[in-house]
Amino acid sequence: MKHYLLLLLICISPLSHAKQIAITFDDSPRKADGYFDGPERAQKLIQALKKHNIAQVAFFSNSLGLNAEGIQRLQSYSQAGHIIANHTHSHPDFNNMTVEEYAQNFLLADLELKQFKGFKKLFRFPYLRDGNSELKRTGMQAVLKKQGYINAYITLNNYDWYMEDLFQRAIKKGVALDFDRMRQFYVQVLMESIEYYDAMAQTHLGRSPKHILLLHEMDISALFVGDLVDALRRKGWSIITPEEAYTDDIAQYQPQGVFSYNPGRIGEIARDKGQKAGLWHHTLDEAYLEKRFAEEVLSIKLERVME
Predict the structure, then answer these.
(1) In this protein, which residues make up the domain named NodB homology (predicted)?
(2) Residues 38, 69: contact at Cβ < 8 Å?
(3) HSE on the CB side for 103, CA within 13 Å?
């Protein structure tokens, strides 16, 4: 009997703590006039994903960027087997709009993005702001349901976009960047936030759900996403597709209240379970990242970086 129970525990335990993660990129085709131009960024990103055996990611896209180059960039992602998804037309802030205004912006993107072979009816709210009143939140949920969309929430939040800003500002200033240090900074900061939110999930759910990582279509993503994937796999994570991730039970979760500023699905669940502080990991802070970038990447004082 003891041997049977031990075998049962061995079989069940890994499943309850399975670490699975889908990778998504917001804001494509994002402005590209820094280290890479748009076509270079797309090529590097596609190559990095293929090299590291990432069969599919999702690019949450703004149709306002669909000039000739932007269309070609999204076509290249689509042709490589990746998902093109809806992130509104112009990336508006729902907190400052009516449901009707916001829905029109969403529907315009839906119309424009259907041209891509890889288009899927997944919608992510820009800034993760899904309605700062119950009326707005339920109103937009009804629009998504009517149009056959899935609310493409995230579980793993971070400020990779601000790391990109620090990187591009240094490049523009002609700073001689140590790319090994930049790589380590990028990977370490993201791994810290990933592990934090996974621990929060296990606290409140009793398990590690199918996670969705929020990244952005940026130069540092193209440069270092492969290194991030390597770090994840060393820690026992497996990479799954976004569509598989949204089959998790938490996809059906309905938060008890509204957020003016949403931390992501794990933060929603944690708040409903009574957690009041720490819904945003400490790395989601611009001043904090400036300090770490200065110390870990540039090895110079912060005030010299920001002059």
Answers:
(1) 19-240
(2) yes
(3) 16
Task: Tell me the per-residue pLDDT of 264-293, one tens digit each, with 9 for 90 and over.
Answer: 999 999 999 999 999 999 999 999 999 999
Distances (CA, A) of 16 to 103, 268, 300: 38, 21, 44
Closest among 216, 201, 117, 109 to 161, alpha carbons compared? 216
Contact (Cβ atoms closer than 8 angstroms) between residue 57 and residue 23: yes
Mean pLDDT of the chain: 93
Place of tokens 């993201």: 190
Per-residue DSSP letters for 82-110?
A: -EEEE--SS---GGGS-HHHHHHHHHHHH
- Topology classification of domain 18-305: TIM Barrel (3.20.20)
Distance CA(111)–CA(152), nearest Å, equals 18
- For β-strands 58-61 and 238-240, DSSP reports them as unpaired
Question: Which runs of consecutive H residues, i.e. helices, occur in the chain?
Answer: 2-16, 38-51, 68-79, 99-113, 134-146, 160-172, 179-205, 219-234, 242-245, 265-272, 286-292, 302-305
pLDDT of 306: 44
Express as a percent the part of the chain with pLDDT over 90.
Answer: 91
Phi, psi of 121 (to 5 degrees): -80, 70
- For residue 284, give every residue at least 6 positions away whose Cβ sits within 8 Å of its Cβ, in sequence order, or none: 157, 158, 159, 193
Angle 265-272/179-205 helices, nearest 10 degrees?
A: 40
User: Is residue 302 scored above 80 in pLDDT?
Assistant: no
Distance in angstroms (rounded) separating the CA atoms of residues 205 and 96: 33
- Kindly state the tokens that stand for 176: 């001689």
| Mean pLDDT calculated for residue range 30-36 | 96
